[in-house]
Amino acid sequence: MQTTVLLSIKPIFANRIFHGIKRYEFRKSIFKERGVNRIVVYASSPISKVIGEFQVDDVIELELEKLWAMTQPYAGIQQEYFYRYFDGREKGFAIKIGNTNLYREPLVLQKEFRIQRPPQSFMYI
Q1: For residue 48, what are the contacts with CB-CB under 8 A and spacing of at least 6?
Q2: What distance in Å separates the CA atoms of residue 39 and residue 20, rounded to the nearest whole number?
Q3: CB atoms within 10 A of CB 32
Q4: Is this prediction's pTM over 0.90?
Q5: Into how many domains does the chain fold?
Q6: pLDDT digits (tens, 9 = 90+) for 30-75
Q7: CATH no. for residue 105?
Q8: Torsions phi, psi of 2, nearest 5?
């Protein structure tokens, strides 16, 4: 069974994902359901639309130093940003991005998914 999550991502990072520059999406917390294998990407403001999706290859939880060392070549962010994002935490999560599919036409959240507001972080769909 395929479990899908709608994930809000800043447009700059979403674009890096679909251009193959960013192969890990970092999160402070992760889904309770460990069977998530597909992510639908909502690019937050100013785009405010669903722009594509990707397969989840893995979800990695590590201490920050080890997480950065493992993901750095394809993190799609600077080291300073990484540590600032995880400030005050000992561990972090990285979603390893598999195959991507950038939609030809972005989708409107309300019309296509019947969702009124985008999630702060993520939601199951």
Answers
A1: 42, 109, 118
A2: 15
A3: 7
A4: yes
A5: 1
A6: 998 878 999 999 999 999 999 999 999 999 999 999 999 999 999 9
A7: 2.30.130.30
A8: -90, 130
